[in-house]
Amino acid sequence: MSMEESISLEETNKIRIKLGLKPISDDSAPTDDKDKQAEDNYAKRREQEVKDRESKYLSSQGPQSFLRRII
User: Fold this and answer.
1) Where residue 1 falls among pLDDT bands split at 50, 70, 90?
2) Is 13 exposed, middle or buried (0-12, 13-18, 19+ CB in 10 A)?
3) Burial level of 12, CB count in 10 A (0-12/13-18/19+)?
4) Nearest 5 degrees, angle CA 8-CA 20-CA 4?
5) Domain map of the chain by residue range?
6) CA 20 → CA 6, 25, 26, 44, 59, distances in Å?
């Protein structure tokens, strides 16, 4: 005979602290931080891809071609 029971996060943390364990944090706040971090990582990745493409293009064109474009 097993019956499922649930306890609140606060109650869980009280028990964990009594046992010498770290309390569990509420995950609602870090979700926003994780989304922000993911957006930042994506933006950085896109910037790096653009730089890589430009670098590859310039190296494939050679220095004379580059100089003709800026003169």
Assistant:
1) very low
2) middle
3) middle
4) 30
5) 31-71
6) 21, 15, 19, 41, 60
DSSP symbol at 6: -
Distance CA 31, CA 37 (A): 10
Q: Which of 18, 16, 30 is nearest to 7 (CA)?
A: 16
Handedness of CA 55, 61, 62, 67 (dihedral sign): negative
User: Which two structure tokens, joined as six digits, stand for 28?
Assistant: 């609602």
- State the pLDDT at residue 47: 93
- pLDDT tens-digit map of 43-61: 999 999 999 988 887 777 6
Are 9 and 26 in contact by the 8 Å Cβ rule? The answer is yes
